[in-house]
């Protein structure tokens, strides 16, 4: 499992690094911040890193909350960028408009409140030791639920792009993003229906890593499509410029 996290983390760092050279020109800022937040969240899921950092906090497993809030930020930025790039007014409203901001704030606050009431005396990456605790289930469910909500908002315009895009790279990028977002939604279902089954936590973690792999690879392919065709999956500003 550690190896999977490390591979995805390296991919996230690599994608972020490609956006850094022109930050001084006020380009790539949103994607760079998104990649940095995603990298932090992924790094904190690696048990050795998690345990080393968690020992510096008085509140046990505060590192998990920090990791989830970093992922909240990354997903919110990415969702806004893709919604604008896909020119989907509905997705823009649901993710970056008033409705989207309310959902984000509610999920963010609820996540912190639920964490405050959890009892987790021993450090555990991903709170693996407490996956049958109702409060931990709710806490995890809010985090996964928000990510799934953003993915659900983006799926319809992505499916439309997959059907309409004539370039092979564009269709590949859309297909990878659809697969990644679909896996996120499946992961959200597992939080609640998979609790009684042994080994479900490790399976859910693999699903999370596969979804992250598909999304990061899909974004990289979309950027490549921009270079090759000049008419990528999303408009240039969504991957290259500050929006």
Keywords:
single chain, about 240 residues, mainly alpha
Give your account of this protein's structure.
Helix content is 74%, strand content 0%. The protein contains ten helices and no strands. Helix 2 (29-43) packs antiparallel against helix 4 (62-85), helix 4 (62-85) runs parallel beside helix 7 and helix 5 runs antiparallel to helix 7 (134-164). With 243 residues, the chain is mainly α. The chain is globular.
Oligomeric assembly: single chain
Tell me the series of helices and strands, N- to C-terminal. Answer: HHHHHHHHHH
The largest sheet, given as strand count, sense and whether it forms a barrel, is:
none
Low-confidence stretches: 235-243
Class of secondary structure makeup: mainly alpha
Strand percentage, roughly? under 5%
Helix content: over 70%
Count every beta strand, where a strand is a DSSP E run of 2 or more residues. 0
Radius of gyration: 18 Å
Quote the distance from N terminus to C terminus: 36 Å
